[in-house]
């Protein structure tokens, strides 16, 4: 009897393992066809009739599209967050834990931005098996941990063009490359502009070893920027490949960029004016959607308060506070909308045509900070390779423009002791000729 019961128990346990394996394989086979209804990110829902599609909430759709548009413009997830916080953009957050049934619209956070930019679902791809379960022995016991993300090359199922996406797959890949390059302290492509006093950090590389040049500041006070090939010296105690002044280099690249865009300045000004108007219209549309949502929540809170018995103060007091909070939000949205509508079109839209006629004055305008100049330069230039001609004492800059064109600029490298406060030889000659009079 003991032997029979033991064999029956072993067979039953084996059957459970077989059933579990069959269930997993069935789910995997269904996922390979793109029919397994897994949890989807914000902006998508599973429809009963035609499967995966956009969320019917237009406000949520416009918010997600705005995130991709801002990243396409700024090239940095952090800058996208800052710009959207300045515009008062909200994003939904589950109010019931992880059930994803009811939501509260709260100010957008960095994790909302980065999760949208890194999720391949928004590029129209169905992805299954992005994470894995790991089992290890800890103190003689089996411990399982979940949620360990795998690299993209190890995902179990990737079906491109599975559903309608907010962006294309090529743009998604470009976004991942740019996010990886923006990581601090990691090698990669051209990083996004981060401000400072130098124009070309993260954009200029060494023509001898291929490493990115770093910016050092020399001199008293705030100092002046110096571009150096410092990685080999720091990591392997090698001699520096090159070192040259940053102000002269930045000025030379600026002149080259302004000369390159001068023939098309008027067309670019008209395009900038169109983009400015579209940006203002998009901002006004987002505020109007916020106001519409706030008015609906206020009317819903009013109906709940009206349906409650006023004598039941334990419930009526809470409903009254909720109604007042929604009314205050309506007032805030109305004030934001009136502020946007109160701005006159003449004052809101700059004179782009006038700016195009004097590009140098536009570039050096007080309202244009270094971060904006870096972003403008990265829209034109793909990469800059620097080398030093020791015999001629020239810094050779090879500029790789977007579109495949290349140009070369030479910047004279000053001698030791030569600086900007030095009296020119022409002035000294005049002084010597006048000294005998």
Q: Describe it for me?
A:
This protein has 437 residues and is α+β, with helices and mostly antiparallel strands. Among the domains are: 107 residues, Hect, E3 ligase catalytic domain fold; 93 residues. The strands form six sheets. The protein has a four-stranded mixed sheet with strand order 9-13-14-15. Helix 2 crosses helix 3 and helix 3 crosses helix 4. It is extended and about 125 Å long. The mean pLDDT is 83.
Mean pLDDT: 83
Mind telling me the CATH class of the domain at 42-125 and 160-182? Alpha Beta
Shape-level CATH architecture of the domain at 42-125 and 160-182: Alpha-Beta Complex
Q: What is the topology, as strand order, of the major beta sheet? A: 9-13-14-15
Gist of the model:
The protein has 437 residues and is an alpha+beta fold.
Which helices and strands, and how do they pair?
Elements: H1 2-32, E1 44-47, E2 51-54, H2 58-74, H3 77-86, E3 90-94, E4 103-107, H4 110-118, E5 126-128, E6 131-138, E7 141-149, E8 157-159, H5 169-182, E9 204-206, E10 214-218, E11 224-228, H6 231-236, E12 243-245, H7 246-261, H8 265-307, H9 313-342, H10 345-348, H11 352-357, H12 359-363, H13 370-380, E13 381-389, E14 394-401, E15 406-412, H14 425-434
Helix pairs in contact: 2-3, 2-8, 3-4, 8-9
Keywords, please?
single chain; 437 residues; alpha+beta; Hect, E3 ligase catalytic domain fold; four-stranded mixed sheet; three-stranded antiparallel sheet; 14 helices; 15 strands; 49% helix; 19% strand; extended
């Amino acid at each position: 009897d003991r032997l029979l019961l033991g064999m029956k128990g072993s067979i039953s346990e084996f059957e459970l393992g077989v059933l579990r394996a069959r269930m997993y394989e069935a789910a995997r086979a269904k996922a390979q066809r793109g029919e397994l209804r897994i949890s989807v990110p914000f902006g998508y829902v599973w429809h009963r009739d035609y499967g995966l599609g956009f969320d019917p909430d237009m406000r949520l759709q416009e918010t997600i599209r705005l995130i991709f548009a801002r990243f396409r413009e700024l090239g940095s997830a952090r800058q996208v967050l800052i710009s959207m916080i300045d515009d008062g953009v909200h994003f939904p957050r589950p109010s019931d834990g992880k059930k994803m049934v009811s939501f509260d619209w709260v100010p957008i956070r960095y994790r909302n931005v980065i999760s949208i930019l890194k999720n391949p679902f928004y590029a129209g791809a169905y992805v299954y098996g992005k994470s894995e379960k790991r089992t290890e022995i800890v103190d003689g016991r089996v411990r399982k941990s979940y949620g360990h993300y795998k690299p993209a090359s190890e995902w179990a199922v990737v079906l491109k063009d599975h559903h309608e996406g907010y962006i294309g797959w090529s743009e998604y890949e470009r976004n991942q490359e740019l996010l990886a390059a923006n990581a601090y302290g990691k090698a990669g492509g051209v990083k996004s502009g981060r401000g400072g006093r130098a124009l070309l950090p993260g954009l200029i590389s060494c023509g001898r070893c291929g490493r990115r040049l770093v910016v050092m500041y020399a001199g008293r006070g705030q100092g002046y920027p110096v571009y150096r090939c410092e990685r080999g010296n720091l990591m392997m105690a090698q001699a520096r490949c090159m070192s040259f002044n940053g102000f002269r280099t930045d000025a030379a690249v600026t002149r080259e960029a302004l000369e390159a865009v001068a023939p098309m300045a008027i067309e670019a000004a008209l395009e900038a004016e169109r983009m400015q108007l579209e940006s203002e219209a998009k901002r006004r549309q987002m505020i109007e959607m916020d106001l519409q949502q706030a008015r609906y929540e206020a009317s819903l809170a009013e109906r709940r308060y009206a349906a409650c018995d006023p004598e039941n103060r334990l419930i009526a007091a809470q409903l009254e506070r909720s109604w007042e909070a929604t009314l205050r939000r309506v007032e805030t949205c109305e004030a934001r909308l009136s502020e946007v509508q109160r701005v006159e079109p003449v004052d809101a839209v700059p004179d782009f045509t006038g700016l195009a006629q004097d590009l140098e004055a536009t570039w050096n305008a007080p309202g244009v900070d270094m971060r904006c100049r870096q972003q403008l330069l990265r829209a034109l230039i793909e990469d800059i390779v620097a080398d030093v001609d020791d015999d001629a004492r020239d810094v050779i800059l090879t500029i790789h423009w977007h579109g495949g064109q290349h140009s070369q600029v030479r910047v004279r490298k000053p001698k030791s002791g030569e600086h900007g406060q030095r009296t020119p030889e022409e002035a000294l000659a005049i002084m010597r000729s006048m000294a005998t009079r």
